[in-house]
Specification:
about 400 residues, mainly beta, 17-stranded antiparallel β-sheet, three-stranded antiparallel β-sheet, 5 helices, 20 strands, disordered N terminus
Length: about 400
């Protein structure tokens, strides 16, 4: 089934959680809740705090209320509450905290015209770039970690010209930790999805970049566009592509800019291809994505290519096995005036394997191990052994005419 087919996407996210009686009603409300407890063993925390132990645990709770107002109008939200380190990339910091993120919170309108299904959404939206964001759910993700482009940090180098027209103290005030190429958190914006037969398309306008999401109160908002689409070749096989473009630098990064330039002159661009295939007990998916970050003061700006392939095999009605192989290759950069370019960041490969077990329809146990290969962390220091228990609570729902 195509991931971004308008009505199918809404059915998966909203209507599937309602009982059959509610699906036949013109209006209804549902509130699915899932809670995940997790533990991991890794020496990643010791890179931030040498005194940190290798074992830690955390939780993740997802609350996804939906309100069906009529046959055309609906509202949907996805609120995520989690402690750190829950995700593998959280383990690079030894800090413990609890975070709340509204991944989605929007009003939608859906209708059909002849053979076309049209869906319009406005509010806090999951990015329309890539295919993994709609699988950002512990019960839907067969593994424990996320693909590299949705979890790793890309840190373009700070231009040396920064100090040529600004004092060093001004440049040092820039809060610069790098960017996750594609956010799994929400973006304020509007989106239009159109599907016709086996073709699905989408266009999204947001107030900030998928590489650097901002809230509506931020001073670092700039208009962005994201477009994508896919085609179902045969039942169970879909191929797609997507692209985004727009400014991505924070307002504080203005100290890097040469005179006469603004942040809008330095956009980030992402382009990707994806595919999903399912047949019998086998499920395969993968993405290849390329990102380019225009940086002030560079003759050759940073770019990175990230790809992954994922395979899931259902061993028995209760057991499955899953594997994900990912690679990140970072391009070379050269500042203005330099004739020799060099890599701005080491390349990275990761291999993750997981076993899943469903003792009941409400529970999913996952046990996984991730190998990471990079010259910055030789040996097994950044490898992770993890376990999760995903519990899906009975959906609270009510319908009316």
């Amino acid at each position: 089934m195509p991931i971004y087919r308008g009505l199918a996407a809404i059915s998966m996210l909203i209507l599937a959680s309602l009982p059959s009686a509610a699906q036949e009603a013109e209006a209804g409300i549902a509130a699915p809740i899932s809670i995940t407890g997790g533990a991991l063993y890794s020496h990643r925390m010791q890179g931030d705090n040498p005194a940190a132990g290798p074992i830690d645990g955390a939780f993740h709770a997802s609350f996804s209320p939906s309100l069906r107002l009529s046959a055309h109008w609906f509202a949907y939200a996805s609120i995520q509450v989690f402690s750190t380190p829950f995700y593998y990339y959280d383990a690079f910091q030894a800090e413990h905290k609890v975070e709340v993120h509204p991944i989605q919170a929007f009003v939608g309108y859906t209708t059909t015209y002849k053979s076309a299904t049209i869906l319009v959404k406005a509010g806090q939206l999951a990015t329309a770039f890539g295919s993994f964001p709609l699988h950002y759910d512990d019960a839907d993700n067969p593994l424990l970690d996320q693909p590299l482009s949705y979890a790793t940090y890309v840190k373009p180098p700070v231009p040396s010209i920064c100090n040529s027209w600004n004092p060093p103290s001004a440049c040092q005030q820039v809060n610069y930790y790098g960017y996750t190429p594609v956010t799994l958190y929400g973006l304020p914006g509007v989106e239009v999805d159109v599907s016709v037969h086996n073709l699905d398309t989408r266009l999204q306008i947001t107030s900030s970049s998928p590489a650097n999401p901002q809230n509506l109160l931020s001073g670092s908002q700039y208009g962005q566009w994201t477009a994508g689409g896919g085609y179902t070749l045969i039942q169970g096989l879909r191929v797609g592509s997507s692209v985004f473009h727009g400014p991505y630098l924070d307002r504080d990064s203005g100290v890097w800019l040469p005179p006469g330039k603004t942040l809008t002159a330095f956009p980030a661009t992402g382009a990707g291809m994806d595919a999903q295939w399912a047949r019998g007990r086998w499920n395969m998916s993968g993405e290849w994505q390329w990102f380019h970050f225009d940086c002030p003061g560079f003759r050759i700006s940073p770019s990175t290519a990230i790809g992954y392939a994922e395979l899931k095999a259902v061993l028995t009605p209760r057991f499955y096995a899953a594997l994900r192989i990912a690679d990140q290759h970072n391009g070379r950069v050269a500042q203005a005036g330099q004739s020799i370019s060099e890599g701005f960041q080491t390349n990275l490969q990761s291999y993750e394997f997981a076993l899943g077990f469903r003792p009941t329809r409400w529970e999913l146990w996952k046990l996984g191990y991730e190998w990471v290969r990079t010259s910055d962390a030789p040996g097994t220091r950044d490898n992770v052994l993890g376990v999760q228990l995903v519990t899906t609570l009975p959906t609270l729902s009510r319908s009316w005419r």
